[in-house]
């Protein structure tokens, strides 16, 4: 997809070293659909980083992500925590999903990971 400019419309501390970011298009218009397990790919001041969407929505107008400040960050999560504020703009590079499950096949999910728990 072509890069899409987004604006931060919400930033909230939700846990230790973790913020929830809410992003939307500048005009508030529709965003690419997201299946369960999808993540967005963001350009963070030249660094490309991926963040799982908190909600899957077939017709989203906002994306929500939770971002942990990584210890010894080379810049991605540190940029989000220290530089992004409500009103900041950033580029959405892609919406991707590497964890698509086929509902026609039986499955057994055993995991403590956030990405797996949302689909089991
Ligand atoms: C599909 C996907 C979904 C993701 N979803 C989320 C999410 O929902 N929330 C979230 O917080 N993160 C998520 N991540 C991780 C996120 O993309 C970033 O990797 C994270 O924010 C750290 O980026 P950073 O630039 O701050 O840290 P980085 O600089 O990438 O550092 C991360 C860690 O690697 C170590 N490190 C630094 N340099 C090196 C090196 N040269 N070699 C080895 N290790 C090194 C650092 O010490 C640090 O602990 C996801 C990643 C993927 C692939």
Write the layout of secondary structure elements.
Layout: E1 4-15, E2 18-25, E3 39-44, E4 47-52, E5 62-68, H1 76-82, E6 89-96, H2 114-117
Antiparallel strand pairs: 1-2, 1-6, 2-5, 3-4, 3-6
The protein binds flavin-adenine dinucleotide.
What is the residue-mean pLDDT, rounded to a whole number? 91
| Alpha-beta content class | mainly beta
Strand arrangement within the widest β-sheet reads 4-3-6-1-2-5
Number of helices: 2
CATH class: Mainly Beta
Major sheet: 6 strands, antiparallel
* CATH fold label: Elongation Factor Tu (Ef-tu), domain 3
The tally of domains stands at: 1
Number of strands: 6
What ligand species are in this complex?
flavin-adenine dinucleotide
DSSP helix fraction = under 10%
- Give the overall shape, derived from the CA principal axes: globular
Poorly predicted runs are none
What sequence of helices (H) and strands (E) makes up the elements?
EEEEEHEH
- The CATH architecture name reads Beta Barrel
SS strand fraction: 35-45%
* CA radius of gyration: 15 Å
- CATH homologous group name: Translation factors
Assembly type: single chain
Distance between the termini: 29 Å
């Amino acid at each position: 997809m072509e890069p899409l400019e987004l604006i931060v419309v919400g930033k909230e501390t939700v846990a230790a070293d973790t913020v929830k970011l809410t992003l939307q298009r500048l005009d508030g218009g529709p965003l690419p659909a997201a299946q369960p397990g999808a993540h967005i790919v963001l350009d963070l001041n030249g660094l490309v980083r991926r963040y799982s969407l908190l909600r899957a929505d077939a017709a989203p107008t906002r994306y929500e992500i939770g971002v942990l400040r990584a210890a010894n960050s080379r810049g991605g999560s540190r940029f989000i925590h220290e530089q992004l504020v409500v009103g900041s703009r950033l580029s959405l590079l892609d919406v991707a999903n590497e964890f698509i499950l086929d509902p026609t096949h039986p499955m057994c999910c055993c995991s403590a990971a956030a990405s797996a728990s949302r689909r089991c």
